[in-house]
């Protein structure tokens, strides 16, 4: 009888072969003792099948499978297809621009084995890196802990970067109960999925740092700072309200924190790149009728004031 892998690493590829290779190399370093415990599932929306050749070079005769789509499925459906093909007890989605830190896959598997399927959703730490893999930020938990559904939802909706995609491991069987990613939510469909998962299962937070999350100009999220996305995110808050898990005051505090971090962090990225036109566009989101009456949390007050001054000076100089 074939042993069921502990972990399925699902990689939805899309036209980034060089970074895709880097991700596979971070998996290929896995020691022999782990190879039966891990499978790799590659679902490819790319224009060609260059990723298949790279997988053959990097993964060789290991436990992996590859599927190329003649017609691209699109972001969320590509994620869903990879999950549907997975056989492991847990699933991690590794985007083709991210990679595991040295020894990261082993630490992840060890933690999942140690937890013995007690938790349906497990969250790990990440290194946030730039295009050249320089570490910009380390995001991790100082102590392991389980967050109840209410605690997990407050963390998710008061910190727009609480979940970094490749750092969340999900029991595969859970998708049969809560469903797959919903493309109708567009860019924030991942947040909508985390909301469903956390509302049903909470989340167990591990201290281990396992992956590197790459921030760069090609990322799909870089184009998500617009009025349409704000409207979708506000829709998520309405869905959160319908769950009746958070009090009205807790919901309002989360909204204040979430949107200020989401917008000010996005503006900061553009400021660092010297893209002042896009910086002004992102800052303009705070003046939307749906957001302009939000109180400014003390955590973000200084950033709001400084960025507001830069925005005003830029508009004056025109």
Describe this structure in words.
- With 318 residues, the chain is an alpha/beta fold.
- It contains 11 helices and 10 strands.
- It has helices at residues 17-28, 50-59, 75-85, 104-115, 149-158, 174-178, 189-201, 227-242, 248-272, 276-283, 298-317, and strands at 7-13, 38-44, 64-68, 90-93, 99-100, 121-129, 135-139, 145-147, 168-171, 203-214.
- Strands 1, 2, 3, 4, 5, 6, 7, 8, 9 and 10 form a 10-stranded mixed β-sheet that branches.
- α8 runs antiparallel to α9 (248-272), α9 (248-272) packs antiparallel against α10 (276-283) and α9 (248-272) crosses α11.
- The longest helix is centred in the last third of the chain and has 25 residues, at 248-272.
The biggest beta sheet is recorded as: 10 strands, mixed
SSE order: EHEHEHEEHEEEHEHHEHHHH
What's the N-to-C terminus distance? Answer: 69 Å
What's the overall geometry?
globular
List the helices and strands and how they pair.
Elements: E1 7-13, H1 17-28, E2 38-44, H2 50-59, E3 64-68, H3 75-85, E4 90-93, E5 99-100, H4 104-115, E6 121-129, E7 135-139, E8 145-147, H5 149-158, E9 168-171, H6 174-178, H7 189-201, E10 203-214, H8 227-242, H9 248-272, H10 276-283, H11 298-317
State the gist of this model.
By secondary structure, this protein is an alpha/beta fold. The chain is built from 11 helices and 10 strands. Strands 1, 2, 3, 4, 5, 6, 7, 8, 9 and 10 form a 10-stranded mixed sheet that branches.
């Amino acid at each position: 009888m074939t042993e069921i892998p502990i972990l399925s690493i699902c990689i939805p590829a899309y036209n980034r072969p060089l970074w895709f290779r880097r991700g596979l190399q971070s998996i290929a370093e896995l020691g022999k003792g782990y190879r039966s415990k891990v499978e790799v599932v590659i679902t490819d929306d790319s224009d060609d099948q260059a990723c298949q050749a790279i997988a053959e070079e990097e993964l060789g005769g290991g436990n992996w499978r590859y599927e190329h789509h003649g017609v691209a499925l699109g972001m969320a459906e590509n994620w869903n297809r990879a999950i549907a093909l997975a056989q492991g007890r847990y699933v991690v989605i590794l985007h083709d621009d991210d990679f595991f830190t040295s020894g990261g896959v082993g630490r992840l598997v060890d933690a999942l084995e140690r937890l013995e399927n007690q938790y349906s959703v497990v969250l790990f730490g990440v290194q946030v890196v730039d295009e050249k893999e320089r570490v910009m930020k380390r995001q991790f938990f100082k102590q392991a802990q389980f967050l109840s559904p209410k605690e997990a939802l407050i963390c998710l909706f008061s910190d727009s970067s609480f979940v970094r995609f490749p750092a969340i491991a999900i029991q595969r069987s859970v998708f049969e109960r809560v469903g797959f990613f919903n493309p109708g939510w567009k860019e924030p469909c991942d947040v909508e999925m985390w909301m469903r998962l956390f509302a049903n299962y909470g989340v167990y937070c591990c201290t281990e740092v396992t992956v590197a999350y790459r921030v760069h100009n090609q990322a799909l999220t870089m184009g998500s700072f617009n009025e349409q996305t704000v409207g979708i995110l506000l829709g998520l808050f309405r869905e959160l309200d319908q769950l009746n898990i958070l009090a009205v005051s807790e919901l309002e505090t989360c909204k204040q924190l979430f949107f200020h971090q989401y917008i000010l962090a996005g503006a900061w990225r553009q400021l660092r790149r010297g893209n002042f036109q896009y910086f002004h566009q992102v800052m303009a989101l705070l003046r939307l009728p749906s957001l302009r009456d939000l109180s400014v949390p003390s955590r973000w007050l200084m950033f709001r004031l400084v960025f507001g001054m830069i925005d005003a000076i830029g508009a004056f100089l025109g």
